[in-house]
Structure formats: C-alpha cells, structure tokens
Specification:
By secondary structure, this protein is of the alpha+beta class. It has seven helices and 16 strands.
C-alpha cells in the first residue's frame, strides 16, 4: 500500500510506502523524515496505517528530543508520566527507557522492571493513551526486542461463552496495582493521590475501527462488582489467553528506528533476552493521550 502526502522537506510532495512486516500486526513506513513538518493529509494517513497495522516502524530517523515531541504532538496532547527518576524527580516530556543505573552503567536490575510485564500504557489514567512512540538511541547487538500482543485478534478468538461472560464487566486499574503486580517498589502516597484507581471496560470498542478488543494487563487489580479472588483469576485467564504466541509480534530494534504503536488494542513488554549488565538499551519515549474507553 502506498500513500502520498505533502511533506515540507524542500522537495515538494514526497510519497511514503506502507509495507506489512508481521503476521498479525506491524508495518514499515518508508519515505518520511519525522524531523520535518508534514501536513494533515500525511498525519491522517499515518493514523489510518496505525489503525490497520497497530505497530508502525519508521526506519533511519534522526530525531532530537524536541523533534520527537513535535512529531508526537501532531497526533494529540502529550501525556505525562507518574513514574520517578532515581533522584525522585518526575520525567519530562521525553522519558528515557533504559537499563542504566544512576551512574549510567548497564545493569541487570534497572530502576523499574514494569516494562518487562504485559501492559498497555497509561491504562491507570481516566483517559488512557492513544499511542506510544519510541526512538531507538542505543541498542544491544542481539536481543532487547519489544513484544506486542494483538488484543483485537485475542478477543475475536475467545469462545462465545467467554465473550458473553465478560460483556459489560469492568476492571479496576491503578498505578498502585501496577507496582504490586510487577514486584516493583510500592507506589508512594503521593503517587496514589496523583493516579487513584480508575475503572475501564474489559472489552472496549476501538474508536478508529469499531472493532472490539480486550482491555486488560498488569495495571489491573480486580473486576468491579466481583469477589477479588474470582476477578483476579478471570483477569489472569484472559491475559494468559491474549498473550499466546499466535497473537504476538516481536520487534527487534535497529538504532535510529522510531516505532509507534496503538495502546488501545495492544499489550506490549520488553524482552530481557540480552546481557543487560554488559550492553546498553536506550530509547526515547513519548506518549499521546487518547480518549476514554467505551
């Protein structure tokens, strides 16, 4: 599939090509320099590609943090971060995703292990994110990929009796639950106040396609109106089903790549399959705010 739009790069109209790369999701977008402005037609074409392929890969990009913020804001409001740095300060618009210790050295025990568990970004917000954007700065020679699970395909593959069982159910999401579920340092009282529990449907409708998708992950604590143990068992059952390899795509990074994915219908996690105490894995992360799930 090819799409043409106007990109202000001094050469007039520049085409870009969308090439599917994965069995269940994923496409590469070539011919776009994300460091330069582009018009609404190109923005809308990128969103169309995101709706169709869920994970978009832009190769060979050279983005400053400022340029990444500018690109991100073309798709909506920037979402801020509740997590803290080693020094206790909140992240800026660009969050550094890395395996580095406070002295800047690679480590097997980075500040947080939450990104190694299946989740959808910011589901503990009242209005969760539309998309996350990562720019690969330093990548290990092998491994260090990001795994994605297609929750639309997972929902569609559920037995009809399970679809009936979860129709109308809502799960409770919170930063506190996320920290507990991923064996991280507990949420502080300040963070609990900043991000109190919210409730979202366990089956949401994708606003861009109208398809139904599971909406669960490690930010959830229990099911509203159901005994806690029973609700957690149901959430674990759905998570186990939805992250089966038949619904997965693993992206192995190259330096300079920008990857944009759809948090409304995907789970993701980082793969700890490289020598974390020897090689650096550093990516720049920005997040686009979405809409309230329904």
């Amino acid at each position: 599939m090819s799409v043409t739009g106007a990109i202000d790069g001094g050469a007039g109209t520049v085409p870009f090509i969308v090439t599917p790369v994965g069995r269940v999701m994923g496409a590469e977008i070539s011919g776009v320099d994300l460091s330069k402005p582009f018009d609404d037609a190109v923005r809308d074409a990128i969103l169309d590609a995101l709706n169709a392929h869920q994970v978009l890969i832009f190769p060979d990009q050279d983005l400053s943090k400022e340029a990444q913020v500018a690109f991100t804001m073309r798709f909506g409001e920037m979402e801020q971060h509740v997590a803290r740095n080693y020094d206790g300060k909140t992240f800026g618009d660009v969050h550094l995703v890395s395996n580095l210790d406070p002295e800047g050295n690679p480590t097997k025990t980075p500040r947080s292990s939450g990104n190694f568990f299946w989740h959808t970004d910011k589901s503990y917000h009242e209005i969760p994110s539309l998309s996350t954007i990562l720019h690969a700065i330093t990548i290990p020679p092998q491994g260090g990929g990001t795994q994605f699970a297609n929750m639309q395909l997972a929902y569609e593959a559920l037995p009809e009796e399970m679809k009936e069982k979860i129709a109308g159910l809502r799960a409770v999401h919170s930063w506190e639950a996320s920290r507990n579920n991923t064996f991280n340092r507990p949420a502080t009282e300040e963070q609990k106040k900043e991000r109190p529990p919210v409730v979202h449907p366990m089956v949401r409708t994708h606003p861009g396609t109208g398809r139904k998708t599971l909406y669960v992950g490690t930010h959830t604590s229990h099911v509203e109106g159901m005994p806690v143990g029973e609700g957690r068992a149901l959430l674990y059952q759905l998570l186990d089903f939805a992250t089966h390899p038949r619904f997965q795509y693993t992206h192995y990074w190259k330096e300079g790549q920008v990857v944009m994915w759809d948090n409304r219908c995907l789970l993701h996690r980082a793969a700890a399959d490289f020598e974390m105490d020897k090689y650096t894995r550093l990516l720049h992360r920005t997040v686009v705010r979405g809409t309230k799930p329904y």
